[in-house]
Hints:
- The complex is a heterodimer.
- Chain A is an alpha/beta fold.
- Helix content of chain A is about 40%, strand content about 15%.
- In chain B, helix 2 (about 50-65) packs parallel to helix 10 (about 275-290) and helix 7 crosses helix 8.
- Chain B starts with about 25 loop residues before the first helix and ends in a 9-residue tail after the last helix.
- The longest helix of chain B is centred in the middle third of the chain and has 17 residues, at about 175-190.
- By secondary structure, chain B is α/β, with parallel strands linked by helices.
- At the A-B interface, strand 6, helix 4 and helix 10 of A face helix 6 of B.
Amino acid sequence: xxxxxxxxxxxxxxxxxxxxxxxxxxxxxxxxxxxxxxxxxxxxxxxxxxxxxxxxxxxxxxxxxxxxxxxxxxxxxxxxxxxxxxxxxxxxxxxxxxxxxxxxxxxxxxxxxxxxxxxxxxxxxxxxxxxxxxxxxxxxxxxxxxxxxxxxxxxxxxxxxxxxxxxxxxxxxxxxxxxxxxxxxxxxxxxxxxxxxxxxxxxxxxxxxxxxxxxxxxxxxxxxxxxxxxxxxxxxxxxxxxxxxxxxxxxxxxxxxxxxxxxxxxxxxxxxxxxxxxxxxxxxxxxxxxxxxxxxxxxxxxxxxxxxxxxxxxxxxxxxxxxxxxxxxxxxxxxxxxxxxxxxxxxxxxxxxxxxxxxxxxxxxxxxxxxxxxxxxxxxxxxxxxxxxxxxxxxxxxxxxxxxxxxxxxxxxxxxxxxxxxxxxxxxxxxxxxx
Amino acid sequence: xxxxxxxxxxxxxxxxxxxxxxxxxxxxxxxxxxxxxxxxxxxxxxxxxxxxxxxxxxxxxxxxxxxxxxxxxxxxxxxxxxxxxxxxxxxxxxxxxxxxxxxxxxxxxxxxxxxxxxxxxxxxxxxxxxxxxxxxxxxxxxxxxxxxxxxxxxxxxxxxxxxxxxxxxxxxxxxxxxxxxxxxxxxxxxxxxxxxxxxxxxxxxxxxxxxxxxxxxxxxxxxxxxxxxxxxxxxxxxxxxxxxxxxxxxxxxxxxxxxxxxxxxxxxxxxxxxxxxxxxxxxxxxxxxxxxxxxxxxxxxxxxxxxxxxxxxxxxxxxxxxxxxxxxxxxxxxxxxxxxxx
Lengths: 435, 342
């Protein structure tokens, strides 16, 4: 995982009704193997160095704790058919959410990170953050009511890059976001992990991709904001302050003269962000009153990104030019990034990427033109099909990964639930929400 | 013409694309007709007015392009039946499957396996949670379910006194479309009528609505309004209320024939209507585009329509693509707004 959480020192006392672990390090070693993917007993033996009977005993201990279960049968290479051991998906559940400037997503995941429910809705970008927070809590309450499994953790992706309060002192955290963290913690009485939505999405997308595509990956979100998350060795690079990946604030060249919301002039977002495309489309609709853009805009409600895509698809030259120009600017910026980190895969995601092939083709063309040939030799460029699900999936994986990370789980495994982690209880006591 | 806004986002947070974004090139109709393609349709039910209308638009469109519909499966709201049906039609090697998935989780693998066989999968209304557009399915075509829920809330609110209690009669299965309606209904009420208390009344299958409602009314006789997530259970709720000697303001989704009459008669205060025939046509076009491997948006959404006693006749015509029955016209004439028949 990204960075291990700080845990309280000292070994917690097991609850009287929980089994006492005879070989805690061995049990945790076995769990550490199966949380990364289903494994047969033989594979666990190889990964942990434990003998067959020791593995069997420790798997039994984990089964008694309700943390693992038998999985699928594998092909036998002689003797009894081996069955895999995996995390028990239904032992608990995870609430996840992503908050963006214009959308809010909420999901419920099992302990394998699989989303069992998800819901996304638009939010007013200029709304009071408190209104958005209250809405988030209402949706979490509703999702939690729909299921009966114990809640093990909460994962939240936010626009700003932050660390959870459990990590305070390592990543730092804005006070307003800490307040959100504390409200979630007090309300749901389970560990809460905060990350940036871009980092959550990168993790979710990397996990969804198969084979060698996932390990060296750049995940680019093209929305109103443009961000790039770099995944190397399967880990999201968060940067010194957790703010890595502000691709939208790269200088887009002398032709970019607009002032960015960051205060600078000529940022990539001012030519290829969603707002820039919509402004250009509105201008084009005025300039070409007989064009498809003007016709779509005249239906009321203003133009949106799918309208630009549809107009281009119907042959509107101005719409196609807007998308192509944005694609070239994005591709040029990505070429610099690709030269710096040499990814195996670049994933383009977000509403701007969903406008279709014109923008994507221009992005590819500019990237190939400006990047070093060695960097692009085996480079795969794809458009994400996960949309905002990537953020929720990544949030679920983040929470499960953190809960099951060896130092953290060692403090709650024989207490039955991460909610009984000593530092969790201490935080709740500090908040005045202790049981 | 003014565009009706789509209020919701897609199952993966996608922005909606309009039906006209599903387009064919000039050469495509001939290409499809010459290919002799076959499609199967797997529906949650084929018995509701909504399903019949949707099917009519879908089959007519596929027929127009020469795609043979080899089977229409009525899953009777049973996920196990749907799973078996998907396996069967996949084995029959049809070229496309149009399916309305019954649950978010239980039927996901069956849909994924059918798609993995190389069959083009087009979804209606629901998307199983783990399936992704472009890889597991070609396109999702749905109504703006979020908009439907919000309309139902807006139409019910004026009929409920301050401080009242509203029952949301919702479906127990994890059904994306009805969950969207319920979430939107609650959001509108929480924002615009925070004085009202919202109570959940769940039903797992048809036939359970009456007992669930009787239990809810027994537990809280102060119930002063109902939102039922679609018209079939709404009909049951109306019968149940009549049996209990109660009458409550009610809104629902879908302008089925019976609910249209109940609306004109004043038994239902408003309907948030889908346009199932038009949606069927769009689904058919998306199927043709998918068969030709054309680029499709992940989520195509049709706007919701607000129907009250005042416009029920004209809405019926627009939605059903046929004249309204005489009973409906007569009942609507007696209302102050004359049912939009003028």
